[in-house]
Write the structure tokens for this entry.
Amino acid sequence: MGLTKTERRLRIRRRIRKISSGTAERPRLAVFRSNTGIYAQIIDDEAGKTLVAASSRDKELSKVKGTKTEVANLVGKAIAEKAKEAGIEAVAFDRGGNLYHGRVKSLAEGAREAGLKF
């Protein structure tokens, strides 16, 4: 029997995390996608700290009406704005085992539009 969808995603996630880690100079932008929401964190793995976080459940973004893809784009813009306030300009993108497609791609494009480099 083959792998389930979840097992496959977790296997890909472990493979990505082996080579990708966040530093103080270039933290990691980690994306988690659930059925109902999307969450993004900028993490310094060396210190083990979350520097900035944004999600579709934040007060400002939870009131927005639109498709999940449109909301993901807004989350990307929000995380980029918060990162700029914290003095972060470049990150390493961690898609969390999800395909770079749909909501994950939309979040990344929103972050890039707002000035985050990766």
